[in-house]
Amino acid sequence: MSGNAAENRRVPRHLAIILDGNGRWAKRRGLPRLMGHRAGLRKLEEMVHLVKREGIRYFSVYAFSTENWTRPPMEVEGLMSLFRYYIRHKVEAIKAEGARIRFCGRKDKMPPDLLEQMHWAEERTKDETTLDFILCINYGGRAEVLDAMNALIKDGYDGPVTEEALRQHFYLPDVPDPDLIVRTSGELRLSNFWLWEAAYSEFYFTDIHWPDFDEAALKAALADYAGRERRYGGLSS
Ligand code: FPP
């Protein structure tokens, strides 16, 4: 993954979204939290289409973090069931969009049947080239760096460790760093998402809860990004 100072594109090549606010969306309507996650899932289906139309090449979403296992078991199980439902029923539609599904995160703790489904979805869509749709599930930025370091050690790498050597052992080494990271629902933090890769990402925060994030909200985020000057530590032009 790399950033390129010479390449100041107006449309992000890689858009990343922290899907936040499903719980608050549901609470506001007097609904159980899981209904918020369901609404969030529907929104995601719509967003893949819109993101592709904007000419974005990589779209990653933070759907379940390495810390989310501490949520009540019923919510965790509900989320795993939603992921299963999504793969079972939506992969063909994603493929028809020309999108390749990729999962990013640790495989441990994940239910084995879901891991199998994830593998199947990746295989089924692996030849699509319009959009890489990256679902970060059981993902943590710190875990990714640690896993990469341990993989280097296992490979017998005898150092010194370089950025490139480390990157080659990340979960998706070919994916460029996120140009724009959007977080919905008002919190102003990264929460362990793309920790290393976000070094020069632009950030956009909105108070809109994820299930309410629509085309206008996406366009507002992209318009804001288009006006940014990215310097990657260099001088302004
Ligand atoms: C954060 O909102 C959201 C999550 C932890 C889950 C996101 C998952 C989905 C949108 C379903 C996606 C499905 C697939 C297949 C990727 P929160 O629960 O933290 O909301 P709150 O902060 O308002 O409580």
Report what the structure shows.
This protein is an alpha/beta fold. The protein has a single domain, classed as 3-Layer(aba) Sandwich (Undecaprenyl pyrophosphate synthetase), CATH 3.40.1180.10. Helices cover 41% and strands 15% of the residues. It has a 6-stranded parallel beta sheet, sandwiched between helices. Helix 4 (112-124) links the parallel strand 3 (99-104) and strand 4 (131-139). Helix 2 (33-53) packs parallel to helix 3 and helix 3 (73-96) runs parallel beside helix 4 (112-124). The structure holds farnesyl diphosphate. Farnesyl diphosphate is lined by residues 19-24, 37, 40-41, 44, 63, 68, 79, 82-83, 86, 135, 185.
Please identify the structural class as seen in this structure: alpha/beta
- The number of helices is 7
Supply the CATH superfamily name. Answer: Decaprenyl diphosphate synthase-like
Could you say what the CATH topology is called? Answer: Undecaprenyl pyrophosphate synthetase
Order of helices and strands: EHHEHEHEHHEEH
Number of domains: 1
